[in-house]
């Protein structure tokens, strides 16, 4: 039994989790017509860390929905334990439907080192979805400064591809604090993978990874004057 | 068998025969290409024919179900078109509620009014009530940045994707003496003349096109457009038997629909150019989004509806 995976639930719960997963994919497709744009990476079953921008709770389900089913089954999103364990419903959806790797964002509550937990999930063969900004970006800037986790993972497991993944439009589809998602077209763009180069220090690597991610953002030409 | 059923059956056979011929023609064009080469023009044509098969099947299914089926089909088309349009408008968090209302209240209500036959509200709900109410919802949140641009673009999207498009299924509620139970055929007539005009304008534009209409905007030419309009009129004449118009008025109606459609398509090209996108989305393989497909119908529908209503309906 893998130590980072949740305990084996009953057959019925696993079936329910599969059904809920399909329902989430259908809902995402219906509302946002979500589409994958593979630009620099191919949808192949390699071990990867998909690292993405984070503006909304809808980001992770969107990335999860556009991955081909065979890849989706090997991918585990890294998510906050304090959020996903808060209610019984979330505790079902997070750990069982998405099979999240749960980490605690609050150092004072931690029982395990987050990087060690993520490396353990990689060693079990999983790919990861990671939001290196740590929190949802509420600013006008495209990205918040990256936390160091991505660097530590790149250093600990240098063979794993780090795939920049830009989720467009989610800040408008489902902004923080809103309950009704707006049906707008969402595109998830996957770029060419990034690896830690020999001798590259943390700041330089994180900067390069962040630029590779921002480069995927759609160039939305808005008329002159104020951009909304 | 009633007259309407016979007409629909004859029309269905004709359309299937035509599409089969076009599909065959497309494959012949493909086969004439040198080994290992593909031509963009031929591939565009083949893709278009595929989309027409899908459109014909969907429309036929909807017509079999009847008025509710047609309403459902166009409500979904409105939803898809509005979704594509709103993806590229200015909006801020303060607009979240008004945009949600546009999608989940205004759009369904417009089709409900059509269903219940409430003609007054059908004609005023979007241009008057939504126009007044949605900016209020945005104003309550107090964010004034690009306010007028935001509310104006939202209203424009609703007018285009919901109000104008809903005039196409509205043809079915027209009360035309001697044409009872056959109003659905007007939708078929409209779609066929607009599509035929577009395609033939494209074809003749490639063959004879010299003078561009809007040189900075689109490759459309006067020569192609005029030939396209003439072809639309001929198709209109050939289909006059399914309309209450008579042959010559059917030609005029077909050219008017085709002309407004082509001009409307040019308006959409201008919007896409301004926003820096080539297609509204990727939902229809090879042809962009629903809006790319519907742009001419959207502009032509209200004019066609009102002309038919004023001249032929009671």
Task: Write a brief caption for the model.
The complex is a heterodimer of chains A (about 230) and B (about 325). With about 230 residues, chain A is of the alpha/beta class. Chain A is built from 9 helices and 7 strands, in the order αββααβααβαβαβαβα.
Could you characterize what this model shows?
The complex is a heterodimer of chains A (228) and B (314). Chain A is an alpha/beta fold and 228 residues long. Chain A has a single domain (11-213), classed as Glycerol-3-phosphate (1)-acyltransferase, CATH 3.40.1130. Helices cover 36% and strands 14% of the residues of chain A. Chain A contains nine helices and seven strands. Chain A has helices at 11-32, 59-66, 69-72, 81-84, 88-97, 114-123, 149-156, 170-173, 202-214, and strands spanning 35-38, 48-52, 75-80, 101-103, 127-130, 161-167, 187-190. In chain A, strands 1-7-6-2-5-3-4 form a seven-stranded mixed β-sheet, sandwiched between helices. In chain A, helix 1 (11-32) packs across helix 2 (59-66) and helix 6 packs across helix 7. Chain A is globular, with a radius of gyration of 17 Å. Chain B is mainly α. Chain B has one domain. Chain B has ten helices and no strands. In chain B, helix 4 (96-116) runs antiparallel to helix 5 (119-140). The relative contact order of chain B is 0.11. The mean pLDDT of chain B is 90. Classes of the chains: A alpha/beta (228), B mainly alpha (314). Chains A and B meet through loops of A and helix 3 and helix 4 of B.
């Amino acid at each position: 039994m893998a130590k980072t995976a949740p305990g084996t639930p009953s057959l019925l719960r696993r079936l329910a989790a599969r059904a809920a997963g399909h329902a989430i994919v259908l809902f995402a497709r219906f509302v946002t017509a979500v589409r994958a744009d593979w630009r620099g990476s191919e949808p192949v079953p390699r071990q990867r860390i998909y690292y993405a921008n984070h503006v909304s709770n809808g980001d992770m389900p969107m990335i999860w929905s556009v991955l081909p089913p065979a890849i989706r089954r090997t991918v585990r999103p890294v998510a906050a334990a304090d959020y996903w364990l808060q209610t019984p419903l979330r505790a079902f959806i997070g750990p069982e439907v998405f099979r999240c790797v749960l980490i605690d964002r609050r150092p004072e509550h931690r029982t395990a080192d987050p990087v060690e937990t993520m490396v353990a999930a990689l060693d079990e063969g999983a790919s990861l979805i990671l939001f290196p900004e740590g929190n949802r970006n509420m600013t006008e800037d495209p990205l918040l400064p990256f936390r160091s986790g991505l660097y530590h993972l790149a250093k600990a497991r240098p063979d794993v591809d780090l795939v920049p993944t830009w989720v467009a439009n989610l800040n408008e589809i489902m902004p923080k604090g809103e309950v009704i998602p707006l049906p707008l077209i969402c595109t998830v763009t996957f770029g060419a993978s990034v690896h830690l180069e020999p001798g590259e220090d943390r700041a330089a690597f994180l900067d390069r990874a962040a630029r590779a991610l921002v480069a995927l953002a759609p160039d939305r030409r808005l008329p002159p004057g104020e951009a909304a | 068998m009633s007259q309407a059923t016979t007409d629909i059956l004859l029309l269905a056979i004709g359309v299937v025969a035509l599409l089969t011929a076009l599909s065959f023609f497309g494959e012949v064009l493909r086969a004439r290409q040198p080994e290992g080469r593909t031509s963009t023009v031929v591939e565009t044509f083949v893709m278009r024919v595929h989309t027409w098969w899908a459109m014909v099947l969907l429309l036929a299914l909807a017509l079999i179900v009847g008025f509710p089926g047609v309403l459902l089909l166009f409500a979904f088309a409105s939803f898809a078109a509005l979704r594509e349009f709103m993806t590229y408008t200015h909006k801020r968090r303060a607009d979240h509620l008004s945009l949600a209302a546009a999608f989940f209240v205004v759009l369904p209500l417009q089709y409900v009014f059509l269903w219940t036959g409430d003609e007054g509200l059908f004609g005023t709900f979007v241009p008057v009530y939504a126009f007044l109410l949605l900016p209020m919802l945005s104003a309550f949140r107090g964010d004034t940045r690009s306010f007028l641009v935001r509310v104006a673009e939202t209203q424009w999207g609703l007018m285009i994707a919901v109000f104008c498009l809903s005039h196409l299924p509205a043809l079915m509620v027209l009360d035309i003496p001697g044409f009872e139970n056959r109003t659905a055929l007007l939708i078929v007539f409209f779609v066929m003349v607009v599509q035929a005009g577009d395609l033939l304008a494209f074809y003749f534009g490639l063959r004879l096109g010299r003078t561009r209409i809007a040189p900075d905007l689109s490759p459309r030419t006067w020569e192609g457009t005029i030939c396209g309009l003439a072809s639309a009129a001929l198709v209109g004449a050939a289909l006059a038997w399914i309309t209450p118009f008579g042959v010559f008025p059917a030609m005029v109606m077909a050219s008017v629909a085709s002309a407004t459609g082509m001009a409307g398509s040019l308006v959409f090209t201008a919007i896409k150019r301004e926003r820096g996108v080539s297609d509204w989305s990727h939902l229809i393989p090879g042809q962009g989004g629903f809006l790319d497909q519907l742009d001419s119908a959207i502009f032509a529908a209200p004019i066609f509806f009102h002309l038919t209503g004023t001249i032929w309906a009671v």
